[in-house]
Give the backbone structure.
Amino acid sequence: MKDRRIIVNSNCYHSYSVYDAVDGIAGCGFHAVELTATKGWTEHAAPSMSLHELAAIASYIEKKGLEIPSMSGHVNLMDDQRIDDFLDNIRLAHFFGASIIVSSIGEAHLQDRQKGGIDTIRRNLDRVLPLLDRYGMNLVLETHGEHGTGTAIRDVVRQIDSPLVGICYDTANVIFYGGVKGTEDLEASADWVRYVHIKDKAGEEKEWSFPALGKGYVDFPALLRVLDEHDNPSPLSIEIEFTQQGARDLDEVNQAVRDSAQYLISLGYAL
């Protein structure tokens, strides 16, 4: 399925401005960006920004020829106090025209203040689903933290039982957080996957090392073949997080994005 939509997560440009991210992504030949609005980590957009700021960002992205099909809007969905924040992130995603919003079940980069089971998650999502439905938006839950495998998220999604909720399968997080390699985990969860963070992994299992695509050891052809065999058309959103020290400079980020583009092209995908 070589016609998958290819997106670049603006989180690749963590610590750089949204304008740096947009310039780099467009300059590498891409046509779509997953705009990151993750509190305490990468806030390329945020509900706290003024309408003037948000309109300027939207205008600049449009001018550079990029679409915004998706937004990273991570909050802890087990924390009752964070659901209003997530509702604001959904409204923010709608403002930018995104049809997909990504969240982990726990916090992505802030400390979890609350934890809970499926009943807590279901109760909180009962507040979220009507707004998703109103905006025609889908929520995809990322393999992350304590829910670090596709099968773990699959079990949550099955119990939520809503066509508006699926899995964001992160190809490196399942190694780093979930400790799984190979295709078995994706095989078991592919029917619930709606979005893919295509991310490479290098170094030891628990080492923060996420280089450009093709520079690590993730077997992307095998994983993508699983999706194809399941007739799963999920978009691929490139995410590069480098090492714990981050990228040396903006040029290194742009080169990694460019290298990732060339890797996907070598697999037969069009940007």
About this structure: Residues 6-266 form a domain with the TIM Barrel fold (CATH 3.20.20.150). The mean pLDDT is 94.
